[in-house]
Amino acid sequence: MVHDLRLLLRILQGRNPHPSAVILDSRTLPSTPESGHRGGYDGAKRRRGREVHVAVDTLGHLLALVVTLAEVGDGERAAEAARGEGVELVVVRLPEARRGFVLLPRRWVVEGSFAWLTRFRRLVRDYERLPQTLAGLHFVAFAMLLAQRLVELLGKVVSSL
């Protein structure tokens, strides 16, 4: 459903149905007593939990999602998976090290997608026993968000007729 909604939205916005660029990022969801011992430890963020890795297109629409323990990093697995699919993975880095948060090009797109997910209270913390359940709830949330966008876009198209 998420795939079909994404295709419809891209077509209605005059875009190629299949994106040529993807933005990858992850966020760590803190554990709760229900999921506590099942989560890993993210040393960078100093919290226990699961990490949700997402790939979105340049409009912020979900392409893929994987849930892992928080101690699993982003880079190597993504690079290997991309090579396996014949895709060139380009990591955008700053030329010099800086302290604190620095906004990288197109980074705001995936951060916006994470912000949309915080509207769903169940996705702010990891309450689930199984990672598949957590991933499924993310897909349900994205389906609802994309359906809402489709309704808004169709409303604009109809009112302009």
List the helices and strands and how they pair.
Blueprint: H1 2-12, E1 23-30, E2 40-42, E3 47-56, E4 62-69, H2 75-84, H3 107-117, H4 131-159
Antiparallel strand pairs: 1-3, 2-3, 3-4
Instruction: Summarize model confidence as the mean pLDDT.
Output: 81
Count of individual domains: 1
- The share of residues in helices is 25-40%
Class based on secondary structure composition and strand pairing: alpha+beta
Number of helices: 4
Query: How many strands?
Result: 4
Query: Compute the gyration radius: what is it?
Result: 17 Å
The outline comes out as: globular
Strand content: 15-25%
The major beta sheet can be summarized as: 4 strands, antiparallel
Written account of the structure:
The protein has 161 residues and is α+β, with helices and mostly antiparallel strands. It has one domain. Helices cover 38% and strands 18% of the residues. The chain is built from 4 helices and 4 strands, in the order αββββααα. Strands 1, 2, 3 and 4 form a 4-stranded antiparallel β-sheet that branches. Strand 2 and strand 3 form a beta hairpin. Helix 1 runs parallel beside helix 4.
Characteristic key phrases:
4-stranded antiparallel beta sheet, 4 helices, alpha+beta, 161 residues
